[in-house]
Amino acid sequence: MAHEYNPAEIEPKWQSVWESDAVDAAVEDPARPKRYILEMFPYPSGNPHMGHVRNYSIGDVVARASRMRGYSVLHPIGWDAFGMPAENAAIKQNTHPAKWTYENIATQEAAFKRLGFSYDWQRKVVTCDPEFYRWGQWIFLKMFERGLVERKMNPVNWCPTCRTVLANEQVEGEGVCWRCSTRVEKRELDQWYFKITDYAQELLDDLDQLDGWPERVRTMQANWIGRSEGAEVDFTVCDADGNTTDETITVYTTRPDTLFGCSFFLLAPEHPLVSQFVDGTEYADAVAAVVERATHETAVERESGIAEKIGAFTGRYVVNPINQQRVPVWVANYVLMDYGTGAVMAVPSGDERDFAFARAYGLPIPPVVVAADDPLLASDPTLAQETDLRVTDVPWDAAYAGPGTMIQSGPFTGLSGGKGSAGADAVIRALAAAGTGRATVNFRLRDWLISRQRYWGNPIPVIHCPKCGIVPVPADQLPVILPLDLDITTGATLAEHPEFYEVACPVCGADARRETDTMDTFTCSSWYFLRYTDAANDTAPFAADKAAYWMPVDQYIGGIEHAILHLLYSRFFTKVLRDIGLLSIDEPFTRLLTQGMVKLDGAVMSKSKGNIVAPEEVIPRYGADTVRAYIMFMAPPDKDLDWSPEGVDGMYRYLNRVWRLVDEYADERDGYPQVSDQAGEYVPDLSAQTKNLAHLVHKSVKKATDDIDRMQFNTAIAALMELTNALYDYKTAVPVGDRDRAVFQFGIESLVKMLAPIAPHITEELWQVVLGNTGSIHAQEWPRYDAALCVRDEVELPVQVNGKVRGRITVARDADEAVVRQAALDAVQAQIAGKDVAKLIVVPNRIVTIVVK
Questions:
Q1: What does the pLDDT look like over 600-643, one tens digit per residue?
Q2: What is the average pLDDT across 248-252?
Q3: What pTM does this model have?
Q4: pLDDT of 682 higher than 50
Q5: Complete DSSP assignment for 176-206
Q6: Cβ density class 674-691: b for 16+ within 10 Å, e for less
Q7: Contact indicator for 201, 227 with CB cutoff of 8 Å
Q8: What is the pLDDT of residue 170?
Q9: What is the DSSP annotation of 541-585?
């Protein structure tokens, strides 16, 4: 009986069955290997678009295929629900962020179910739910206990539009906010920090464990952590007459070999010594102007060179410990207080920024490390042996920061210079012997600023008591509930909600004030994947044994934009929770896929550009399976995909071909004789067409299996299309009464099973209704291939005559050479007639070459 393919009918039907039967619920089964498949959870911003569909379809294909291959699979979903977008949208729409957030979650959940994603919905996590953020507060307190939380006054990045601080990692490009692209300002505020720098070396070292990550992402993280080896050098403060004080300023340098070239000394505008040096002096106004201007420039602008380099002399000096020379102290906007010590020994001949500053202010640029081919040495060869500072300026257009020979460097002249060079090591030893320096390691990574002056976030569980100081909220009083009665339409924060912040000190009972900052939303996404392992736990964030079974995540999927922030913070949280005793792993994600973007007319789909294609625009006409299959077929998952309506239509036609093929087989199969015992186990009289089909089926199973393992879904689908064509060709070429039922059935069932993770609804209908099988297609065993049958029994060989292919022959793979020679001669008889065969060479299973005269 013919059946009609109607996705609008069959897809909701099977979605309802799967949900009621909880077929995708994860089970801890020690008898089976496990796979934890996870896509980065979405922000509840409304209807998903095809970029979301691609991300979540990738994970769903892997999860479904893994279940069929015998794995116990955890494939959960949740929502990253706190943050400024929800708050800003609520203000714009004159509603509450909780209402806006939960409505959008309901919309997205319905869309994900309509797409047939096989999530364990019982483990759903929403980060603005008190039962989730309670444990985020608990983790904060555990970090506080271990000395990993610090509150300090610091210059911070302030976004005037979002009205909150940003971590350094959240300032992008030319000093703009990562969320709204507003120019970021500098402000001095008391802020909360996680001391991620305590784990800097381990975060760097353990990148070597992540061979399942893209090299690009590992490199980005290594560069952000930024380990460097160098020296700390102590400079003594002195006045214009050289009279020294007890004050020393320590700098960090990766180039101690250039110390003799230090011609001026720089302080960050925020350095506490700046005001001490200039207050009440003639230099105060000029220095104040530099300090004021720096407050309007971001760290990115100042450090990268985007901002103009400006400075002012303080009237004070320091003594260079390597040669006792007096060096003027300047304030410069490109020196940052939160990198190193906030002070820099300026060597303009070896640093591009120092070079530009020296040229701008007429400061000396003495050369101290030069390349062998430098014109300076050609014009004055004696410089190679010069120990004193004879040349105080260079005829260069730019600094030279490479390796070379040390000159004008006292007893170190003639040694090799550069990072880690013999000259650098010798200078460090000399400083250490004099007690004015030491070898050290430094990191670019800064502590993680987590304070946010916004409402819609996880409250920081701390109380400020005038008697007891900073008091952590007792664990049995968690969660600190975020009040829902705050009117935020004017941008109000918790600091304007006395019912929230007016509390009694839990230690002494005195009137105290609850912390009104909330945590950076990345603190939620840094551990949500752990909550999925035990989402209903109400006594701990998760049970250690549950996490031990499921973790680490075997396959993590998300955008390259999270290469530094989210992934680095998640690695940090994992290591902290390991040290607390909740985890036994070092790294959270074994394999990482950074999927490509979905584009429309060459532009990345985004709501801000107004160029999105939403699933509900396509599914009513074509069905969810067509959307899923198309988006998996059109490009490798790590490459960008250009959306094409014509391509969608083509995939719909392909699924209809599969439907007709299976439906016709179901009607005809009783007329198929069974010649072979099983698929591919041949009896001697199996026909050539059946042998060829068996080969193509097994070859396709191997190809699709391997490609799905490698997440090359586009080529896996191409293999299924090739198999579909082969099954149709067999039907066309072989009459019903001559078709081998076992081989054809194996081909049909293999096709349906391998298509199931990609197009789950149509395959469920074909399996249970059209083919009449019992049990879900998604609970069936993945088809197995026979490696021997993946290789043809026969091979086609080209036959060359005098270097040109003149014919082709088909012979048994193990045919005797005499048989091959004769077949080749017969195939090109017309080309060699009347000529003498001088040579005939057979390369087994490759080619036959004939030379004639």
A1: 888 887 766 778 889 999 999 999 999 999 999 999 999 999 99
A2: 96
A3: 0.87
A4: no
A5: EETTT-PBPEEEEEEEEEE-GGGGHHHHHHG
A6: ebbeebbebeeebbebbb
A7: yes
A8: 76
A9: SS-HHHHHHHPSEEEEEE-GGGTTHHHHHHHHHHHHHHHHTS---
Nearest to 170, CA basis, from 526, 559, 520, 454: 520
Q: How confident is the model at residue 386, as a pLDDT?
A: 86
Residue 805, strand partner residues:
800
pLDDT over 50 at 479, yes or no: yes
Q: What is the pLDDT of residue 208?
A: 97
Cα distances (Å, whole numbers) of residue 835 to 183, 696, 781, 809, 839: 84, 41, 60, 21, 12
Q: How far is CA 550 from CA 71, 312, 547, 747, in A?
A: 12, 58, 5, 35
Residue 309: CB atoms within 10 Å: 18
What is d(CA 720, CA 714) in angstroms, rounded to the nearest whole number? 10
CA dihedral of residues 736, 739, 745, 746 (deg, nearest 10): -160
Percentage of the chain exceeding pLDDT 90: 77
Reading the block at residue 665, the tokens are 């087989």
pLDDT tens per residue, range 729-763: 999 999 888 888 889 999 999 999 999 999 999 99
Cβ pair 56, 40 in contact under 8 A:
no
For the chain, counts of helices (H) and of strands (E): 27, 35
Q: Are 118 and 778 contacting, i.e. CB atoms less than 8 angstroms apart?
A: yes
Q: Is the pLDDT of residue 679 over 70?
A: no
pLDDT digits (tens, 9 = 90+) for 655-678: 999 999 999 999 998 888 766 655
Nearest to 50 by CA among 614, 557, 559, 606: 614
Helix (H) or strand (E) holding 266: strand 264-267
How far is it, in rounded angstroms, from Cα 605 to Cα 612? 5
To which residue do tokens 């005797």 refer?
816
Going by C-beta distance under 8 Å and a sequence separation of 6 or more, which residues neighbour residue 562?
Answer: 40
CB 789 within 8 A of CB 680: yes
**Cis check: omega of the bond before 256, within 30 degrees of 0:** no
Work out the number of other CB atoms within 10 angstroms of the CB of residue 162: 24
Please, which residues have CB within 8 angstroms of residue 261's CB and are 6 or more apart in sequence? 347, 348, 349, 350, 366, 367, 368, 369, 408
Q: Exposed e or buried b for every residue in 387-405, given b needs 16+ CB within 10 A?
A: eebebebbebeebbbebbb
Q: Are 132 and 524 a contacting pair, CB within 8 Å?
A: yes
Q: Which two three-digit tokens encode residue 157?
A: 């990045």
Sign of CA dihedral 569, 571, 576, 577: positive
Judge residue 16's burial from the number of C-beta atoms within 10 Å of its C-beta, 0-12 exposed, 13-18 middle, 19 or more buried.
exposed
Please list the residues that pair with 794 across neighbouring strands.
812
Rounded Cα gap, residues 454 and 492, in angstroms: 8
Cβ atoms of residues 730 and 780 within 8 Å:
no
Q: Distances from the Cα of 341 to the Cαs of 5, 292, 349, 844, in angstroms?
A: 70, 20, 22, 72
